[in-house]
């Protein structure tokens, strides 16, 4: 089965009206909230509510169900049984997730930054949100395949680790997506740089993305259909 055909199959299962409505509503709410604050406080909204809440939760809902729900519903067998390389299956699923979550992350955060009257904040928020969405997508894609209640586990992870680790310690934060995304945003809004290295933030998100994708391929190779 061709990569594009697999991509369309995964995309159709995830791109529902209800999910689109939730994504659009969340994005509009963030933009409207940002419009009510002082421009100098834009980073204080874009980071905790955008990068810390909207991006991981939207990505969790989409990515955790792309392979996981299809497997538990018995639909994965139809794309599994043809001779399809597992990396190709993972790539198609990841591309389908990215097709949805990257625009859902980039557009509202970029608009929120523009509404706040900060061009640099808008550029930083859009870039950080896009890379964070890819990293979260790669991580949650494998989680959904491996864990039966991935949505609940993912929520606990986002609240306790992604938010808690960043707040408690920079050392713990270095293994969280949000820490790198927040560092990337900070470069554009003029806040203190938590990394101390010019390319650490963006590079860290790309490394997490690659690691999550590799883990998904490995899990697919070991997975047994339910």
UniProtKB/TrEMBL annotation:
Signal peptide: none annotated. The lineage of its organism: Bacteria, Bacillati, Actinomycetota, Nitriliruptoria, Egibacterales. Keywords: Membrane, Transmembrane, Transmembrane helix. It comes from Egibacter rhizosphaerae. The keyword Membrane applies. The keyword Transmembrane helix applies. It comes from the Bacteria. This is ABC transporter permease. The chain crosses the membrane at residues 20-37, 49-68, 89-115, 121-143, 150-169, 200-220.
């Amino acid at each position: 089965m061709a990569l594009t055909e697999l991509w369309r199959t995964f995309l159709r299962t995830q791109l529902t009206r209800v999910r689109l409505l939730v994504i659009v509503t969340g994005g509009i709410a963030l933009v409207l909230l940002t419009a009510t604050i002082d421009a100098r406080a834009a980073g204080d909204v874009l980071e905790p509510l955008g990068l810390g809440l909207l991006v991981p939760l939207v990505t969790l809902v989409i990515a955790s169900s792309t392979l996981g729900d299809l497997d538990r519903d018995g639909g994965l067998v139809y794309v599994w049984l043809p001779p399809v390389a597992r990396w190709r299956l993972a790539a198609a699923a990841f591309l389908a997730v990215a097709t949805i979550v990257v625009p859902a992350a980039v557009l509202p955060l970029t608009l929120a930054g523009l509404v706040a009257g900060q061009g640099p904040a808008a550029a930083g928020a859009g870039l950080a949100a896009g890379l964070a969405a890819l990293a979260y997508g790669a991580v949650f894609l494998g989680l959904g395949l491996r864990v039966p209640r991935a949505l609940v586990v993912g929520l606990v992870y986002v609240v306790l680790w992604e938010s808690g680790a960043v707040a408690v310690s920079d050392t713990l934060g270095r293994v969280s997506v949000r820490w790198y995304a927040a560092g990337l945003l900070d470069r554009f809004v003029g806040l203190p740089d938590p990394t101390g290295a010019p390319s650490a933030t963006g590079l860290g998100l790309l490394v997490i993305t690659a690691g999550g994708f590799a883990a998904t391929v490995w899990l697919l190779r070991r997975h047994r259909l339910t």
